[in-house]
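Quick look at the format.
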Amino acid sequence: MADAGKSAKGSKAPVGQPRRNFFATMSSEVIRSIKRAALEDDTTASEILEEAARDWLERRKHKAPRREPG
């Protein structure tokens, strides 16, 4: 869909940084919604997923570390 080699507006990836594929399994409904949102926002599904992952990683940094039971 929108991933067909076009550069997304406002890409947060550093310029010149190599890109790699990452495969994940998700529900069809979520995939369809991400692709639709990418088209509506004139971006790519990959950019949406990368932004979501970066946001999650940032939130995770600020959480208290888990303690192992024991």
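Next, a different chain entirely:
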Amino acid sequence: MEDQVRQDPLQADRAAGLPLETELQPAPQIEKFSAAELTNLRSELLRGQLDSWQAADLAANFLAGHGYGASAENLREAITSLEMSRCSLDCLQTALEGVAYIQ
């Protein structure tokens, strides 16, 4: 009887320099919020004279309406770091993407 050595397929991939299945990370699927929605959110943030807690709550409600959640602390940091008067819609989109997670 011959001794047969079964090679682990993960070891073969590692030897070939291929990334392991566990090392592969799917590309994030980022939702593009509509310009109208972002404009309304930005207007509310500017118009309301909100403190950071209220602004984070408003942004959290916006994200929740789209099926996302976010840490209140992360939202406060993101919102206060933006200069809302100069923040473009793309800037707001990026900030929301940075803190949002799928619920």
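DSSP finds five helices and two strands in the chain.

See the schema section for token definitions.
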